[in-house]
Amino acid sequence: MSVFNAMIISLKAYVITILVYFLLFAVVGNMQAKAASSEKSNIFEEVVISVAVTDNDNTGLSKALVDYLKETQNVVDPKTDDLRTMNDNVRFSIYDYALIIPQGFEDKILSGDTEGAVSYIVPGTTASQFLLTEKIDNYLSDVVIYLKSGYSKDEAIKLTHDQMIDLSDTHVVVMDNDDNNHKSFYASMFSFNGYTLMMLLCVCCACTWSVMKDRNVSERIAVSGMHFFTRNAAAVGAVLTIGFAITSLVIVVVRIMGRGNVDDKFMYYALDVYALMTVGIGMAYFICSITVSDNLINMIANMIVLSMSFLCGIFVDAQFLSESILKVAHFLPLYWYARALKFINDTKVDQILGGQFITYLVIEVLFALVFFAAGMVISKKKEQYAV
Amino acid sequence: MFGRMFIYKLKELVRNRFLIGWNFLFPLVLATAFYLGFGNMIKDDPDSFKAIDVGYVNTAGEDTNFHKVIGELSEETSDHADILNVSEYTSEEEAMKDLKGEGGIYGIYVDDGNEIKTIVPFNGYRATALNQIVREYENKITLIGNIAKDHPENLDTALELVTKDMNIAKEYDFGSGISLYLQYFFALIAMASLFGSWISTEMIEGMCANHTEKGKRFECAPVSKLMSIASGVLAGASMQAVSNAIVVIYIEYVLKIKFGIPLWNVILITTLGSGLGISMGVLIGALVKNKRLFDIIPIVFSMTCSFCSGLMWDQIRQMIQANAPILNKINPAALLVDCLYTRATYGTIDVYYQDIGIMSIMIIGALTISAVLLRRRRYVSL
Q1: What is the pLDDT along chain A (387 residues), one digit of tens a residue?
Q2: Number of domains chain A contains
């Protein structure tokens, strides 16, 4: 029990590390999950684009265009009149589209010289660029056609506006029945957790283990008369307890954060996270068999876990990774963790518990055993050659 | 004497496994990880608009105008790229089997000659775009109807204009369109540069008699303190500059990700960044008296600055720029990222020189303050 207690107490030294990763998980993970998650809906909803409008003309036609955009899109303040800053704001998604109505715009349209009557700034050829440019082009071309067909300016503006708003009730049917078209809040949150939990487990468990591997401590325990099995069982028990406590805490935090999201698959996500816990502990043992220095443990854990997270689709969705990278990822545990998360997300709740899901969990546990075995081999060799 | 101290300090730094791991290896590993994660997206931006796979079912039994419209939209012309990728189905039921989004079709148009029904698997940009096409088609029908009713004499002019591409909205061209994902690599270089602050604190720690045994020996040694600190700073900056240059060369030539800036220019900027990291570390070393904080503050400083420069979230720097631009002007990592980003996107404009100027002032300021704080330290006993 004294070994067990000593190891648990030694965790105190890593409270800041735990807090930092927890904060990272809670803040970044939550933000990412909220941005990435979506829910099923059978009601058609148009995508609303955030557009920053700079109206340098301030005439009837330019105001009518801005009013139309206000009615159908999210018009925001450009916050600047510098084109370069607007370009940066668009590129970094402060808003999706910047529309600049130049001075003399109305005169140009009325005279029939339409080419380049308004300018826009977009982050390349994107869906938002296509949509809004089409809408603006459509609106202004209608005005021009009405004007050239003999209508007055006010008539052209009114007819175009009414027409555009009337068309909002086009016939669209949404057949949103498949789970795999959406990523739930829990799937997103637990996906980011693949990185933070692995880091927490690797750093905390490896550092706690390294305390016992310290030459002074281990030699004192060795001469204390405590049975070899007892002291090792206590050490393993302590690390498992730390791992279980951290993992459970993470699961509880996710549950609390997602209390507004109804998802009856939560239990399966939790199972997958516990399977990942075994990998984290296994990897911690492997790392601390290489070094007992806290700094080096931190560095090795960072290098392994970060690289693995990028390779396995934790930070970037697997669909964007190349096939060769995905092939390599098959040999990494986080890939199977992410696969299991996707499987839970895409499958109906009564069909999850089956061969495929269990296979994913078993693969994760096998990876944990491989890390343990590798760690034991390294420890033995080190002992053998007194490294 | 200066040369000897410089070489020994350099040797001491190079033999420090911890510094080599974090300052040399970690940026390389992270660059590789970024490449694995974003490499594909730098070459082929996932946000770029691609033709939408859509099914078409004609229940009218004859060719319709809408069929001609979507036929035109599925062809690439000088006015527009192909917008739709149309597959024709004989019935709605048959088309529904493929309506699954990824790996199938993103929508179905059911055309009975009078009305067009759009069926989509889920909401989103593609669904809105498919609906927009129907809207534009119906809009033009309404428009022609109105003109035929009110001004039938101008119907021919209207019909001619409807088919004409007026190019009313024109896009601003800023020249070089570097990928947004390069921002992460710029932030990585900034982070690596600020890791230089760890070199400085490590060096300063070895010069403080109240912190290390080495510091006591240093204080007793009959050498000029200013010269030894200067040689240490230069050694640290050299090591960090070499480390940064290796990272840049690795990204450009091994990972084959082009920054869009001449190599000499990138290395010049990153060398300035190294100097900034080192000088910030010296300032931290001079200000902080607590030994424990010597390790913590440089880590917190470099990671906070890197986070705010967009290392983990590419939007953050621009969000700060939009709401509190002064923070970007005092954050060394954000300055370095902005300098690289501006040079790559807009070339050598005012902002680029402004960034270089601020970084240079920061280096001089930090070293001057540090020199004042570090000179003639007194100890109760050595």
Answers
A1: 777 888 888 888 778 878 887 887 788 778 777 777 777 777 788 888 999 999 999 999 999 999 999 998 999 998 888 999 999 999 888 999 999 999 999 998 888 788 889 999 988 778 888 889 988 998 999 999 999 888 888 999 999 988 887 766 667 788 776 666 677 888 888 988 898 899 989 988 888 888 877 778 777 877 777 777 787 788 888 889 999 999 999 999 989 888 877 778 899 999 999 999 999 999 999 998 888 888 788 888 888 998 898 888 888 888 788 888 888 899 999 999 999 999 998 888 888 888 999 999 999 999 999 999 998 898 888 777 765
A2: 2
* A41 contacts on B by Cβ (under 8 Å): 122-123
DSSP state of B309: T
Task: Give the count of alpha carbons within 13 A of B226, CB side only.
Answer: 6
On chain A, the residues whose CB falls within 8 A of the CB of B180 are: 91-92, 123
Using CA of residue A220, residue A224, residue A227, residue A233, what is the dihedral sign? negative
Over the Cα atoms of chain A, what is R_g?
29
Q: Are residues A249 and A130 in the same domain?
A: no
Contacts of residue B15, Cβ cutoff 8 Å, sequence gap at least 6: none
Same domain, A375 and A255: yes
* Close Cβ partners of A258 (under 8 Å, ≥ 6 residues apart): A33, A185, A186, A189
Q: List the CATH number of the domain containing A69.
A: 3.40.190.10
Q: B52-174: what CATH class?
A: alpha beta
CA dist A355 and B292 (Å) reads 52
Last residue of a domain, one of A157, A176, A195: A176
Say yes or no: A225 and A343 in one domain: yes
Does ipTM come in above 0.90? no
Helix (H) or strand (E) holding B109: strand B108-111
Are the Cβ atoms of B37 and A310 closer than 8 angstroms?
Answer: yes
Which chain A residues are Cβ-neighbours of B106 within 8 angstroms?
none
In B, residues 350-379, which contact A (CB 8 Å cutoff)? 351
